[in-house]
Design brief:
Elements lengths: L1 E7 L7 H12 L3 E7 L5 H10 L2 E6 L4 H7 L2 E2 L1 H6 L4 E4 L5 E4 L2 H12 L8 E5 L3 H12 L4 E5 L3 H10 L6 E4 L11 E4 L21 E4 L8 H8 L4 E3 L2 H16 L6 H12 L4
Helix pairs in contact: 1-9, 5-6, 5-9
The chain binds 2'-monophosphoadenosine-5'-diphosphate (ATR).
């Protein structure tokens, strides 16, 4: 049986095994997909050990997406642009193909599932780590009016801006630099919620905006709760994105893109009732 895994630290909370089991059922594939905890200083060794035991592919999650980018011996165009990798395919030749399906997952969820076209919109992206870096090019390709990147450490946002220097519609800054500005869409790509914290968002930033948290939870994340209190017009968490990026990884491994709507519903049920 072909084996796959999601690797991260922490990883026990990951819903990727749940999602891939549903995809396998739906498409009649027999696969084994597990969650693999890597020690923070042993990412590479853990990946290579997994491959040695016959592993065919992996998803990579926090905090290893940059290390995965370095470890891949070949990259898809979208992974090169993102400089972050969330999917490995172990080739027969011994090569490790690195891909990044986060961006397409996010765009598909926002534009198709949630019916919110991004062209001409003012977007604020919070965070400048691996998660943010993976979605910048796909967001820019939808031709928004503006993509602002806010980060606690503004220098990191500036270096992302340099990476995409051919686009003139990017601005960067600390959170307070965006006080008083209006955005149509505000995306949380920070890992703050994982520590039950919040980015230092100025008052009124969310008014009438669409707030999207790339993380997901059985209830409102702290980010979405703040957005609600500040008067956001619409709230969405990252459950849809998670399923869509997983479908793209499944396509890379198995040559078929599973149907996602049913699995998004099943994931939401599972988040509410974890034994379902
Ligand atoms: P990931 O791969 O999930 O993006 P990462 O590369 O470690 O993880 O990046 C984490 C991001 O969350 C960074 O943008 C980080 O801000 P800094 O660059 O200033 O560290 C952001 N972040 C984490 N905790 C935060 C908090 N409490 N408030 C604001 N931003 C936070």
């Amino acid at each position: 049986m072909d084996t796959y895994a999601v690797i991260g630290n922490p990883v026990a909370h990951s819903k990727s095994p749940f999602i891939h089991a549903r995809f396998a059922q739906q498409t009649g594939r027999i696969i084994h997909y597990t969650a693999l905890l890597a020690p923070l200083d042993r990412f590479e060794q853990t990946v290579l050990d997994f491959r040695k035991t016959g592993g065919k592919g992996m998803n990579i999650t926090v905090p290893f997406k940059f290390e995965a980018f370095t470890l891949a011996s070949r990259l898809t165009d979208r992974a090169s642009a993102a400089r972050a990798v969330n999917t490995f395919r172990f080739e027969e030749t011994g090569e490790i193909l690195g891909d990044n399906t986060d961006g397409v997952g996010l765009i598909c969820d926002i534009e198709v599932n949630l019916n919110f076209p991004l062209a001409g919109k003012r977007i604020l992206l919070m965070g400048a780590g691996g998660a943010a870096s993976g979605v910048i090019l796909p967001l820019l390709q939808q031709q928004p009016d503006l993509l602002a990147i806010a980060n606690r450490t503004p220098d990191k946002a500036v270096s992302l801006q340099r990476q995409f220097a051919s686009y003139s519609n990017i601005t960067t800054g600390h959170y307070h630099d965006f006080a008083g500005q209006h955005f149509d869409l505000i995306i949380n790509a920070t890992s703050a919620s994982l520590h039950n914290e919040l980015p230092p968002v100025p008052a009124d930033l969310f008014r009438n905006a669409f707030a999207y948290d790339m993380l997901y939870s059985s209830r409102l994340t702290p980010f979405l709760e703040l957005a609600r209190v500040q008067g956001a017009g619409y709230l969405a968490d990252g459950a849809g994105m998670l399923v869509e990026q997983a479908a793209e990884s499944f396509l890379l491994w198995h040559g078929i893109r599973p149907e996602t709507q049913t699995v998004i519903r099943q994931l939401r049920d599972n988040l509410r009732h974890p034994t379902s």
